[in-house]
Design a protein that fits this description.
There is one protein chain. The protein has 435 residues and is of the alpha/beta class. Helix content is 16%, strand content 35%. The protein contains two helices and 30 strands. The strands form three sheets. It has a 22-stranded parallel beta sheet that branches. Strands 1-2-3-30 form a four-stranded antiparallel beta sheet, covered by helices on one side. Helix 1 (10-68) runs antiparallel to helix 2. The N and C termini lie far apart (93 Å).
Length: 435
């Protein structure tokens, strides 16, 4: 006997077909997501490259502005973008540098520049849905931003490039100290009787510090906070300043002698003082009217006592073959109340009280700023090529910065950082990424 069994497979075959179709759809979906992930991962990689190039261009342009002025800012920015792999109109890349920026919070401000980089990149898996390219775009803004540093020694190798000595007490808790020297034994030096308090202390090289004053910084030592060594070199933040060009002798004191006063009460006017300005005697009351005083040889020499005052003034110290350069010396028992211009921007030396000719190093002793305990100096003392010996204070609501090749502090000094009186803020600026 034979038994015949017939099975109906029509329903089973239909279910198999549906399962295969579902699997195919799932596989396609997974592949699509995988393709999207791969493409988006690639695009993120390229996006970071585009952003890095824009950032580099913004910083490079800002550094150019800081060091060499405005002339080649756009070229410098584009060169830095090219170094990072993107050149305008090459391989469909677009590099735009707007100086000043065309958009954003710094639009129209010539202390900033804007860099925009864009480039289309081909896709791989997204081509399946007709997305053949994706254009990636990045924007960055660089500029001269305010620096934390109000004490900056620029010499890259000198021993004791920044020195605290003679029982000096330096108190500047609101701003930072920077020593660019890489000297391996005593880039920054402080003695056994000194005491320094700052927001931060950065040194490229090595610190040599004595025991400090008794109880200095609550017994924590002569330098507070503890200096950070191995710091990154800081470029001259005032390199953007242009020197005055007027060298025609045109200024005399009321005595009829060029730049000479003794035991007088008189007001001096801005101009070019050939042979400099010399003030001596114990009974002077000398007032400098607002403006720029060009000391063409002879410097500024004070001795004796009395009062020397002036608001909105800048001293530019220089010399030539006829009128030999001399140091800037504020000394004796004189009380000084001197402040820099509060308006006008860099072209009018806003915030700059003293500016030494960058080609004049001065004597080994350098410039001396040393008034009585009640003296006040509001402004920046700038001697890129020279030495400044300082003992002085800011006014109650003022500011003082010292930027020089080398700096020595003696005596008691209080340096503040209230720049609210200035129309453009802190004149000490570093080229940096701002947006």
């Amino acid at each position: 006997m034979s038994v015949s069994i017939r099975m109906n497979t029509r329903g089973l075959n239909g279910k198999r077909g549906k399962i295969l179709l579902s699997l195919a759809l799932v596989a396609f979906t997974l592949m699509a997501f995988a393709g999207l992930a791969i493409d988006m991962g690639r695009m993120e990689f390229y996006r970071r490259r585009v952003q890095t190039a824009a950032d580099s261009g913004a910083v490079g342009g800002a550094r150019e502005l800081q060091v060499n002025g405005a002339t080649n800012v756009v070229t410098a920015a584009k060169d830095d973008v090219t170094t990072n792999g993107y050149t305008n109109n090459v391989s469909s890349a677009t590099v735009t540098v707007n100086f000043p920026p065309a958009s954003g919070p710094h639009a129209g401000n010539s202390s900033y520049l804007e860099v925009v980089v864009s480039k289309p990149y081909p896709t791989t898996f997204l081509r399946a849905i007709k997305v053949n390219t994706m254009t990636l775009k990045a924007r960055a803004v660089g500029g001269l931003g305010p620096s934390d540093y109000c004490i900056l020694a620029l010499d890259p190798t000198a021993g004791k490039a920044l020195e605290f000595t003679g029982a000096s007490t330096v108190n500047t808790p609101g701003c930072a100290i920077m020593d660019d020297s890489s000297n391996s034994s005593n880039a920054l030096y402080s003695g056994n009787s000194d005491c320094v308090t700052a927001k931060s202390i950065d040194v490229v090289g090595v610190v040599s510090a004595g025991s400090g004053q008794a109880g200095c910084n609550a017994g924590a030592g002569p330098l507070a906070p503890t200096p950070k060594t191995g710091a990154t070199y800081v470029y001259d933040p005032l390199a953007y300043l242009s020197a005055p060009s007027n060298t025609t002798c045109n200024a005399l004191t009321s005595s009829g002698k060029n730049g000479y006063s003794t035991n007088k009460t008189e007001t001096l006017s801005p101009g070019v003082y050939c042979g400099g300005i010399k003030i001596s005697g114990n009974n002077n009351t000398i007032t400098f009217s607002a403006g720029t005083y060009i000391l063409l040889g002879g410097g500024l020499q004070t001795s004796g006592g009395g009062t020397i005052q002036g608001t909105g003034i800048t001293f530019y110290n220089t010399g030539n073959a006829t009128y030999s350069y001399n140091d800037f010396t504020l000394n004796g028992n004189t009380t000084f109340h001197l402040s820099a211009p509060s308006t006008g921007g860099p072209a009018n030396y806003e915030g700059i009280l003293y500016f030494q000719d960058r080609t004049k190093a001065g004597s080994s002793g350098g410039d001396t700023i040393n008034g009585t305990n009640s003296s006040t100096f509001d402004g920046v003392f700038y001697a890129e090529a020279g030495h400044i010996q300082y003992s002085g204070n800011s006014s109650v609501n003022g500011y003082t910065s010292i930027i020089a090749d080398t700096i020595t502090f003696t005596g008691s000094s209080v340096l503040k950082n209230n720049y609210s009186s200035l129309s453009t803020g802190n004149p000490v600026r570093n080229g940096a990424l701002m947006e």
